[in-house]
């Protein structure tokens, strides 16, 4: 049977909504455990070390539903510590792990326990969403987590990231995304719309699922919401991603989510975080109404770690042509000028060059863009002190044959320029093919610090 919003009203009314703003791992706090936020009682002896040693993580699960039929399609796992303790709630739990220098261990344990409970369910859900902590994306997965992900689980795993993950450690996240895809699982980008950076990185991660920030539901007609939703739909139409609206608590929220074009949704209207119950297979929406988990786009191994150089990627698509160094410089001036004039805000700007003199000539433009863009990166054989603040930098190698590239990706504009050759003659490619531009950008991002 479809879930009925009205059937959840009594349940929703019992849940406090007076706490601090929701976090990725928090959702809304259940009323019986509110006391855990302020302390675990006089005899609470739970420490983060004990939690980790005893694997004392008991995740709760929140349903994700198809928004037209209101049938469930999967669940999101939400971290919880020992019940009744001061570490029950994720905020103090993760704060304790950070203070002890054990965030990576806790993040891994939360994912392991979520997958273990989902596998043990009498009727596992077809999709299990798990969160990944941005600060530890560069840590290798544990043997247990690899086992859970690769030993033919009875569901598909969707790993959620925020844009902070890619901005902080782009090369590490791309490698992790590639590993997840290689095992047939999916990616979700969370909190899209909360920060311009999320839209900027959307084409680079190209996730299976895009989760709209819950504040968009609260202001569905604002210019900012309309701008975000238009950009998200453009990506979804091009890539086949599904859109999820979070924070649906009322029937007005449901109407807004549908109007925003979300395919799926989650929130207290459909159920709060709770122990995992047998998933009702009859409740999976029919494939005709975009509700079936089987309609989640297939994985695409290799997408996030393209091989070769930027020029080789462009040449392989037949984009290269012969010209002069002056022609290449004119195209570079055009690309950087357009980025400055129209698309600097919220853009990802990347550059790489094997020639130090050429890279130095680009630095004024890159520094200027760094004041407005979501992310600016440079790979070149330069002294880091010469680069200055605002530009993410990696010292790349020099080469006998110079090769340079520049990429601009913004919500409504994408372009790349790649060249190879000497000072007299150069082969170059100037493309606005979004798929190719994103691939070139990933090649450059792989070279930035992990």
Give a description of the structure.
The protein folds into 2 domains: 5-295, EAL domain (TIM Barrel), CATH 3.20.20; 310-445, Endonuclease, Chain A. Mean pLDDT is 85; it is low at 1-24, 27-39 and 284-291. It has helices at residues 9-13, 48-53, 90-99, 103-120, 143-150, 163-168, 170-182, 196-205, 215-218, 223-239, 251-259, 310-316, 325-343, 356-370, 384-387, 434-445; strands spanning 60-66, 72-78, 127-131, 156-161, 186-192, 209-212, 242-245, 264-265, 321-324, 348-353, 375-380, 392-395, 402-410, 413-421, 425-431. The strands form 2 sheets. The chain has an 8-stranded mixed β-barrel with strand order 1-2-3-4-5-6-7-8, surrounded by 4 helices. Strands 9-15-14-13-10-11-12 form a 7-stranded mixed β-sheet, with helices on both faces. It is of the alpha/beta class and 450 residues long. It is 36% helix and 19% strand. Helix 8 (196-205) links the parallel strand 5 and strand 6 (209-212). It contains 16 helices and 15 strands.
Spatial extent as radius of gyration: 23 Å
Could you give me the name of the CATH homologous superfamily of the largest domain? EAL domain
Overall mean pLDDT score?
A: 85
Helix-strand category: alpha/beta
Poorly predicted ranges: 1-24, 27-39, 284-291
Shape: globular
The overall number of domains is 2
CATH topology of the largest domain: TIM Barrel
